[in-house]
Structures are given as C-alpha cells and as structure tokens.
Prior knowledge:
Low-confidence stretches: 1-24
Strand content: 15-25%
Helix content: 25-40%
Oligomer: single chain
Strand order of the largest sheet: 13-15-16-17-18-19-20-21
Structural class: alpha/beta
Radius of gyration: 25 Å
Distance between the termini: 28 Å
Shape: globular
Largest sheet: 8 strands, parallel, barrel
Number of helices: 17
Amino acid sequence: MTYYVIARFIGFIFCFLVISFSSVFSFTLHNPGKEDIVDYEKYGQFINTDTARYRYVIVDKKGLSDAVGEGIFPNTDVLNNPRYQQLKNSGLLDGNHWDFVNIKNHELSFYKWATAQEDPGVRQFYTALALEKAGLIKHAIKAYYAIVVNFPQTIGWTYWKTPWYIGPVAIDKIVYLTRRHPELGMKIVGAKITVKNKYDNNIRNDVFIVNPGKIIKCKPEEVISQVNLKNQKIIKQIGKKNIKLVQYENKHWQLLVDDKPYIIKGMSYSPCKVGLSPDAGTYSVQRDWMYHDFNNNGKPDGPYDTWVDKNRNNKQDKDEPVVGDFQLMKEMGVNTIRLYHHGYNKNLLKDLYENYGIMVLMGDFLGMYATGSGAGWYEGTDYTNPVHCQNMLESVKDMVMEYKDEPYVLMWVLGNENNYGEVGDTTKVGSGCRAKEQPEAFYKFVNEAAKLIKSLDPYQRPVAICNGDILYLDYFAKDCPDVDVFGANAYRGPHGVGTSFWQDIQDMCDKPAMITEYGCSSYGKGFSLEEAEDLQAEYHKYNWLDIYYNSCGYGVGNSLGGVVFEWVDEWWKAGPPPEFDPSVQDTVAQFGAPFIDGWSYEEWLGICSQGNGKNSPFLRQLRKSYFVYQELWK
C-alpha cells in the first residue's frame, strides 16, 4: 500500500466523505419533498444525452424544487428553515464548511453544506453524504442523483492535486445505497458518465459523455439483477489445462478451476513477529514467515502454531488450543493467498494447497522497491535501461521455472502498484521504481514479461498486473494485450470500488479484473477499539459485496474476486526505527484514507490482532471482520 493509492480518483477530501459508517446522529427534514423518485422529465428537458454536449434545462423550477425538497438543487428552502436559523444564530454553524465533513452531528453537517459557498456539484455531494450518514437514505439518493442530472461534469481536487470526478462516484453511491437498502424498492438504470482521457492529471483534455439514466421503482428482489449463464455462449477462453478464464457473449468473465467456477477469496499473508522490522534488516516480509520457528518445534510458527485468544486476556487459557493460521484461514473461507515476490518454501505451499485447499497468486515485484532489477534504491528501476529490464526478465523466468509445475499456483501477478513508483533522494523515501514517470516504457515491459511467462508455462495460467487503482489504465489497455487480468490495489471507501471501476476496465480493455488489495484500519481517533472493529467489519463487508455483485452473472460481470489486506497487524509499518519502535503498535496517522476517521493507521489493518504483543508471533485475536468473512465466504 502506498500513499498514492488513496490519492488517485478518490481524493484526500473524498477520503473523508465516503465514510458513511460514523455513529448516526439523525434529524428530521423540514421539507423532504413531494417525490421520493423525482420525475425530472416533468420539470425540464434532457438535451444531447449520450454526448459530450449533455445538459439538463429546468423549465419548472418551482415544481422541481417542491419535488426534491430541502438541500437538493434547485431547492433553497433550507435558508428559511427555522431549525437552520436556530443553529446559525447559536453559532454552531460557524467555521469552515470543510471542518463539518467528518463530525458526528450530521444535522450540523447537512445545514453547513447545504448553505456552503462552494462549487454546486461539490456542495451537493457533501450534502448528500451528510444525509446518508444521518440515515435519511431516500433523501440522500435524491441528492446524489441531483449531481448526476445537473452537475455530472463536476471535478474536485485531491490533496495531491489530482482530479476527482464526482459524477461517476455519485452513481456508485446510488448503486451502493439501493443495494444496501433493497426495502426501498428502487434502483438506478441506464446511468453512465464516461470521462474520456481521465487517466492522467490533465483535466483540459477530459471529455464527459453523459447519460443520467433514471431511478425506477422495483421489487426488493429485483434491486440486484442476475444473468442466467446457461443461456450464454462462451466466446473466448484463456488457459489450456485445469485453470481457465472464459468470457461469455454478454462480456462477463469467469475463472474456472477444474471446470468449476472459482471466485478469488484472497488474503495477503505475511505475518511478522512483534519487534522485527524489514526497515531494520531483521525481517524479510516475503519469506521469513515461512521459516521462523521461535518455539523450536520444527514447524513455521504462523502457519501451524498460532492460537486464538478468545477472551482477549493476552494469555493462552486451557480452552485455547494451538490451531495455526492455515486452519484459521480455511475456516474463514479463504481459498487463495497472495505472495508478492517468489522464492518461497515449496513444501509449505504444497501443504497449504493439499491439506487446506488454498491456492496461491504467485508474484514478481517487477522492479518495484528496486527488487529484481539490480537498481540502487535512489537510482530506482529504470524501464528504459536494458540491463535493468534483462535482470527483471531473468527474475520472472526464475519464478516460472521454479513454480510452473506446482498445482497450487492459480495465477501469475506482475508488480505491486508500480505505476505509483517514484524515485526519492536522501530526503525522500521514494519507492525504488521509476514507472510513474515512464508509463509507456513500464507497461510495454509488463507485456514483454507476460509473453515470456506464456512461453514457459505449460498450463498457460492467466497473467495479471497489480496496478495502483486505475491510474494509466489507458496505457495498460494500449500496451498490455498479452496480460490477461487487470488487478488493482484499491482503497476507495466503505462502498467498495464502485460500478464505475469495473465499467472503466470493461470499456477500456474488455478484460477481467480483480482487487489485489483492499482493506481498512481497525483504529480511529475518537473511536473505541470495539467501535473501530465494527466499522472495519462494515467496510470489509460492503467492499466484498461490491466485488461479488460485479462478478460473472451480476452487474458489470468482470470481477474475479479480491484479496484482503491483510491477515494480521504488522507493528513495523508506521516507519523505520529509531523514530518508530516495531515493538510498539503505533497510532500515528500515516496519510488521509477513506477509513474510520479519515486517516490510515498502517499498523492496524489486520483481520487479526496480536493483542498486546507479548505472545507474538503465536497469539491471534480474531476481529469482527474475520467472522463477517466467515459468513460471506462459507
């Protein structure tokens, strides 16, 4: 996970907004409007739909204002609302409107944003968010849809000065809310905002193609549409033996293992003993967990010797037997783990597969963190340097030759959000990789590596990239024809990546996709650890449902699954010693993120905790997210 993964297409500000799971402080609307589903055609004209010249022209402003209600464009009744006047006169609404985004009093947030001097599309989004947080879901849906109709071309800006496209996100939020609340009996159909040329930071070349669609009534069971695959012909197949990708005539993609549907229920697994740190040179994240045997019983500790601290008293009681992470993951429903760079204990992986039914996404960093390229850290992997490229191809070849005959390998994964890679200097950390400044060279090299894999792998397993969100998706579509799967590390918020993510990939390259990392911290300032666990669990639940409801037979239909980041808290993630002590679980906010309080706490991302750390690496406290997945995945 890098700082830039949060920035692209979400935004530092949006990182705060999408958090719909803060404690509910509800209120009553003075004017909820006359229509739950607004018929915009009664009050205006849609002009040039499905073109770059789209606009909605209001003919009956009073009628539309009465229909939508307060806080929704073009209604201004909130200004005359006695409650608003009361709060304003009390001074509770004083201050900058951005300071009201993340407060727990959603009534104050609503009134502040409904009257803010701000871009109308931005103002409408935050007003909708306040309504959503307050549990006023029907009104929130109307507010989000007002963006789609009136302000679909709105562009906000992130903390990193990259564009944030509000219109597509508003559609995603409507899909999320109607799916989460099927009892409302409504769904959005036909809505699509395509932003051509959005995969760079230059908004001057952006072109918006807009179809606002409409919100319709439906039965609760009709909110999620499903396709009968028995009526669909297979038009494309990738893979020769037991692992295949197939595409149906409706463009949906499915992964098959032994001719049975396989959705990736994945886990990022690299447990680290408290006190050790790769920054201090005392731990290798990729490999050491496979060999560390601190109790000297001849077995790796994490996979086989961990036990569950059920009552969280940080000691092993008589009713808390040794069970091991492999068994715990099996009981959770995990069927795949992601390994970032090859060089692993083959016997251990064989046991993982044969006795626990878990397969492996086998990876090569492809020069990220200067791994495999021979580059120095501050020099960074240079994808125009023939020596670096040859070194990386040799690394990829070593991976395939070592594991090509292993039945547990599900897929080959190239890189780890290399497109965020920047080179630092003595004052900046960087990432040991120059891919961000060399996108064309990088993606062409990825394709070269994919072709090499296919020339060596007799099983012709799928080859995937691990991108950082969808930055440079246009380069990927153009330069990676031999890469089979678009994978992305994506942390967009509790609603998941959204329909727009899956649709962008289908539109740009017509390939299947998977989320190679997603997750949420289980810590937030101002929240108890129990509250934070609840919010982490909710985040994971709806991220997974977004993944599932865009898999074959549903939604866009190109999702192959996802990989949770991560299994257990790593106490070294806040930063290198001596400033940060790997024997202490830090609560320092690393960067803005769409998590509990708007920040990411990198040492709290685990589905499992290590308790107070004194019984590391053996103790596991299962967070509520574990049991959410156990229900969803089993």
